[in-house]
Design brief:
The complex is a heterodimer of chains A (341) and B (292). Helices cover 79% and strands 1% of the residues of chain A. Chain A has 341 residues and is mainly α. Chain A has a two-stranded antiparallel sheet. In chain A, helix 3 packs parallel to helix 9, helix 3 runs antiparallel to helix 12 and helix 10 packs across helix 12. The N terminus of chain A is likely disordered. Chain B is 72% helix and 3% strand. Chain B is globular, with a radius of gyration of 19 Å. The model of chain B has no long low-confidence stretch (mean pLDDT 87). Classes of the chains: A mainly alpha (341), B mainly alpha (292). Chains A and B meet through helix 6, helix 7, helix 11, helix 13 and helix 15 of A and helix 4, helix 9 and helix 11 of B. Chain B: It comes from Actinoplanes sichuanensis. Chain B: Belongs to the binding-protein-dependent transport system permease family. LivHM subfamily.
Amino acid sequence: MTAIEARPETGAKALPEAKRRRRVHPVIVIAAAAVLVVVLTYVLPPFRNYQLATVGAYFCVTAGLTVLTGLNGQLSLGHGALMATGAYTLALTQNKWENLPVSFAAAVLVTTLLGAIIGLAAARLRGPYLAGLTLAVAIVVPSVTSTFDETFNSDQGLSVYLNPPPEQYPMEQWQAWLCWSAALVVVLLLALLVRGRFGRDLRAVRDDETAAKLAGINIARTQVLAFVVSAACAGVSGALFAYLAQSVSPGAFPLTLSLFLVMAIVIGGLGSLFGALWGALLLVVLPTLSQSLGEQAGSQRLEGNLALIVFGVVLVVVMLAAPGGLASIPSRISRLIRRNR
Amino acid sequence: MSEFIYLTFDGLSRGLVYAAFALALVLIWRAARIVNFAQGAMAVSTVYVAYSVTNATGSYWLGFAAALLAGLALGVTVERVVMRFVDHSSPLNGVVVALGLVLIIQGVLGIVYGNEFLPFATPFSRDAFEVGGVAMLSRYDLFVFAAVGTVVVALTLLFTRTAIGLRMRAAAFAPDVSRLLGVSVGGMLTLGWALAAAVGSLAAILVVPTELGVHPTAMDVVFVSAFAAAVVGGLDSPIGAVVGGLIVGVLLSYVSGYIDVTVAPMAVLALLVVVLLGRPGGLFSSSKARVA
């Protein structure tokens, strides 16, 4: 009974609120973000610029994962492996042809193909079964690199040959520009994609498969497409990481990376691209913070492990207290204030 | 031929450990519809308890008992303190909270014990007996068979022959009706977590000495193999978990023996893909109704 009584009231409330907050077009948001990034790269010192670049690189993959997990409801624990695919492809093509745009294109292409293959299998699976399959994908990276060690050079990995940036720009600034151009293009494309019919299909499949099927949505195709799109984003991100580190090795893509990515999008707020930005930011900030804390305490054991604990605690607390993630906290607060007035 | 026999027995011994671990996953899945991704980390922390106790007292068996008790306690704690408060509207929530626990546990273990592999001895020799020049089983393998066999039989008896087992099944199957009939559903859930965690500890304490040693992430790959075993069997089926565990164990043993150890994770992935493409709910799943 209560649910039925409550519905007209919330409906009436929701409508004006939606009208008040008319969505700004993504192109405007992205343009503003681009200006902000350029300003930041001139203000920040080199190391901060490098961190800014890392945030951009993470933003690509968290945004793609947000589309897959948040909007389509498919959980992937294997995106670290997809990033590794992008990174290794970039390294191999770059060392062969030394043409960065071509290498990037190859990285995205190969990762997209792999994503399509995994996606075809994933579309048949639900919940824990999907998690299990993608988890197995995540741990396969070191195994592949040491089995085909002539190509991938086992645990040592490959170094990436790169041309230095134009002389008038410092390396870190150039890196930040490249990473953020890629991130902003990726996010813009994703934002345009999920605004339209495809986004509606994604959410319909997530919320109620049966209803979506009855409405004429091709479920399997929607799920595979979501996987392909997010795999392509992971490929871009992996390529950026190979570019930033100028090397690739299986150690850079452990199981914990895949788990961190899921956490980042959950903490940031599932289903919102803005939440994916929060997640990317946390992935860079939290480890740095805990490392400096560990250094102050003068304990080596603390340095690496404190980050894990902080991440874990934040995750559990956010999940129990605010399942909508950090991105939902402002609207929660404003709702609380309005209710108390 | 002799290599084949040796690999088969070795695989069965490993497979039983995966089976026990998979069984623990299935226990929690059946009771709470959560896949406990933290199980590997929880089990490792109890192996560290065994490590400390064994080092302090010099007795493997005191450490062994301490690990199982710590498993029970940890299961109760995790369920009462964290998992009980997870919002179950999306299956993702439970998974993510469990992943958070993994990080917390691994971080704490790393701070307390450090991130290096610590040696952990076995109570019996791991040298295989030879029958007519063919290496077959080691004493330790026999110990593993006995330990896991005892647990499987005990759990089966518990669930099919005792009132507690009946209540646990009822609470998992129809919580609301069970509550009306006077079953403490929350209590059964806690008991399920405690049992599962203890079984997980047993599996970990059996497998860790055969690998590189104790390490905060020592169970990561074992967890993936055991999870694959549970998924192959069908998460709802205890028999499936045991069969799946044996399949995964023997497969990994053949692949490591005949091809290369590094190929093992790829073999697990291939097995998962083949099984799940054929039967998306696992080998022992019951057929599902058509939705549209």
